Amino acid sequence: MSEEEKKQNNSNNSDEIDLRQLFSSIGDFFKSIFVGFIMLIVAFKNATIKYFKIIFLFVVLGGLIGIALKYVLPDYYTSSMLLRSSYSTVKLTESSIEKLDQLCQEGNYEGLATKLNIDTAVAKNIKGFSYEPFVSEAEIVELEILKEQLKSEIENEEVIERFVEKLKNENKSTYRIFVQVYDSKNLGSLEEPLIDYFRNSQYISKRLQIEKENLILKERNIDEELQKLDSLRELVIKNYDNLAERNRTGSNNIIMKDEQLIDPLSIINKRDQLYQEKLRIQQQLYLTPSFELIDGFTVFSKPDSPGLLKIGFYSCLYGLLIAYVIIMLIYFNKYLNSVEELEKKKSELG
């Protein structure tokens, strides 16, 4: 065998050994993870058996505290209203709602009453506020179509999802406003104050006022145009009557040869268009579609606060979590003591 063949065989054997070591290392790594996971379960089981009394005590204690809280804390009811505000943005709505909710959390009911222009007694009945942008079914369909179209252009689906989600939340005009109250009987009295709170904000009120003034000016302009068209129509009709008198030769036929005559139908059509535009303006002035209540609060008889079973279950879970945290602290303290003992022995031997 030549020297080159020997070198090649040695190289191949070395590569095979390297690959075997690599796969062996990978296998040992996953094996150690599996063994570690099993040992963790065993340690968890042993700790549960050893400190069962502590776990049982905290679970029962947590359940009792939860049941006590259910009877101490009052029930609350949640309802919502749909509000359209073309001049509002997600950030603006979020800021407005956060101010109201913060006043509730602070217990500053006088400040809340001043903000909403309501009685302090009504303000004390409110637990909190929240909101979410409202997306209609038509908008959802449009966004899904847009998503499918973007997939042909962009391969990264995560980028598409972020873009669609951002598009869904930005430039929204309809919002669902949530309110939580302790007594739902006076829920209807909050509707108008909340609407006025958003409508009378400096940012929105100025734009609504400008929009209203523009619509009124536009309506006046249309009225003037309608008056001119009515006068022109009367003149055209008189002109046709005079022409008919001149051209009457024993019959009622009218011979129209004058190119300067205006067709009365065009005037009537133009007048009808302007009148329809006036009706649309009057509708906008009355309905104010740029700011309107779509759906008001609904009074529910069933409270939104968690029931006795639910709050008891979650309280037991919290008690269980606290118990295991305490057990972990006990084991950690034992570990620190063992380290301290080991250091003492080393110092004595040294």
TrEMBL record:
The chain crosses the membrane at residues 29-48, 54-73, 311-332. The keyword Membrane applies. Keywords: Membrane, Transmembrane, Transmembrane helix. This is Uncharacterized protein. It comes from Marivirga aurantiaca.
